[in-house]
Write a structure and sequence with these properties.
Number of domains: 2
Low-confidence stretches: 381-390
Number of helices: 21
Structural class: mainly alpha
Number of strands: 0
Oligomer: single chain
């Protein structure tokens, strides 16, 4: 890439993505307020915080909710939400721009970068989630930046020298990468678990690495960034807990899969005695949902879960051994959206376009009603993606499998040909996926980071295949 044209390319790419998303923002003004937003705003308004949601995100969205609270009205609170949406758009679109520029720097061609830019700007999942106030969106944006930074640090030969302005191993790059990783971890509780295991794997890789094939110094630098980011993010979160007097999240949040197993066994194959035992833990088994564990968790008596957690897990294990097929079915239906590329994630359509705020203090005020109606009809609550022309690309499982297959491909390239360790950033993505598989269900927002990294994966595979064929030609 011509370095003289680089600023123009970056600015034009950002403006195209931002303007496309801004139009959708106007159609859904002041933004899409759904998912866990109500619970987070309630925590902020009542000054009763809980670590079940990332405190940094709760404080962020709560601050803008109260920004114009001195003269409360729907219009003023809408302005607060709108400012928060625009700030989120700036962050998300900057991350997408970074990805497009990196694709251009690796492939050295304009067409793949243009396709990537159009995908980020116009693909419905991207444009709708970009204006949705859910913690997963900002996490995915910072996660995308961390992913690209990881590639730049570990695989400097991939990109065209001089195509990205910040020198890869400069102090500024390392500091920015660390700060970005801290924000990523602070914005998703699952990321803490994934990054801890990731650090352990990095240490193992450093210990067993072949110094002749792979400069260990790059892995050491990378491990240093990961450990510093993990330490500072945990410390920062502790400070936020102290300042907000936040209470720990309920242990129920960790019982999605056991709850699903017990609920399905109770409603299908359990004997009267087994049903009575399950009902001691889960009185409301009628609320069992094949694809979403929240009903099983949220309708459980808190005291029972806190005092009898170990007994519940033991009884779940016993029930699973007695009814293994049913237990496996319960697990599969809960995680199916991640691993089945032809399965629609549960209720993702409704949450894309819904607008529900705490106490109804903000109102949907579409500035482009016909566009809002168009998206509302396309993502109808009852049949969802069936009303959209391109059905399959909207399913989350496709993007998860792109990530998994790219990891396998890159491991093979590294072990057989001794190429750069491109697979390492994918290890973190797979570890994060493992935390999602233990969660309440497969919803597109949870796996938004896989949608954002998919163009990069395709780009990297294309790069290696092109080089392989060019080297084998006579």
């Amino acid at each position: 890439m011509n370095t003289k044209k680089q600023p123009i390319t970056i600015i034009s790419t950002f403006l195209f993505i931002f303007l496309c998303h801004f139009i959708i923002f106007l159609a859904f003004y002041p933004g899409i307020c759904s998912y866990d937003l109500n619970a987070q705003i309630k925590q902020y308004v009542d000054n009763d915080f809980c670590t079940s949601h990332p405190l940094l995100h709760t404080l962020f969205i709560g601050y803008f909710h109260d920004l114009f609270i001195s003269s409360p009205s729907n219009e003023n609170i809408n302005r607060g939400y709108a400012i928060a949406t625009i700030i989120q758009l700036l962050i998300v679109d900057s991350a997408m721009t970074y990805s497009v520029i990196y694709v251009r720097s690796v492939l050295r061609k304009n067409l793949p970068a243009i396709i990537c830019m159009v995908f980020y700007a116009l693909f419905p999942v991207n444009s709708l989630l970009a204006i949705s106030h859910t913690k997963d969106v900002l996490f995915a944006a910072f996660g995308l930046i961390f992913f690209i930074d990881s590639l730049r640090l570990l695989c400097p030969l991939l990109q065209n020298v001089g195509s990205l302005s910040t020198p890869t191993l400069s102090s500024l790059f390392m500091i920015r990468m660390t700060v970005n990783a801290i924000l990523m971890i602070l914005l998703r509780n699952n990321a803490v678990y994934a990054i801890c295991i990731f650090a352990i794997i990095l240490i193992i890789l450093i210990c067993v690495s072949n110094h002749k094939k792979q400069p260990v110094s790059l892995l050491v630098r990378y491990l240093f960034v990961v450990l510093i980011a993990l330490t500072l993010s945990v410390t920062s979160n502790r400070l936020l807990i102290y300042r907000t007097n936040a209470t720990p999240g309920s242990i129920k949040e960790m019982m999605s899969i056991p709850g699903q197993i017990m609920g399905r066994i109770h409603n299908t194959v359990a004997s009267d005695e087994e049903q009575s035992l399950i009902e001691e833990y889960i009185p409301n088994t009628d609320e069992y949902n094949y694809y979403l564990a929240d009903p099983m968790k949220h309708y459980l008596p808190f005291e029972i879960w806190e005092s009898a957690c170990k007994h519940f897990l033991l009884d779940t294990a016993i029930m699973s051994l007695k009814h293994p097929v049913t237990a496996l079915q319960a697990v599969w239906y809960t995680i199916q959206g991640y691993l089945d590329p032809f399965h629609q994630p549960y209720n993702a359509d409704r949450y894309y376009i819904s607008f529900e705020t705490y106490r109804g203090d903000a109102q949907l005020d579409s500035k482009i009603p016909f566009l809002h109606k168009l998206y509302n009809d396309a993502f109808a609550i009852t049949s969802g993606y069936c009303h959209t022309p391109l059905v399959i690309p909207l399913y989350l499982g496709i993007y998860v499998w792109i990530c998994i297959l790219t990891l396998i491909f890159m491991i093979r390239k590294h072990t057989v040909l001794g190429s750069d360790p491109v697979y390492i950033p994918y290890v973190f993505l797979i570890l994060y996926l493992c935390t999602l598989l233990l969660g309440p269900g497969a919803i597109t927002r949870y796996g938004f980071i896989y949608v954002l990294t998919a163009p990069l994966s395709i780009c990297l595979i294309s790069h290696f295949l092109r080089n392989q064929y060019s080297h084998t030609e006579p």
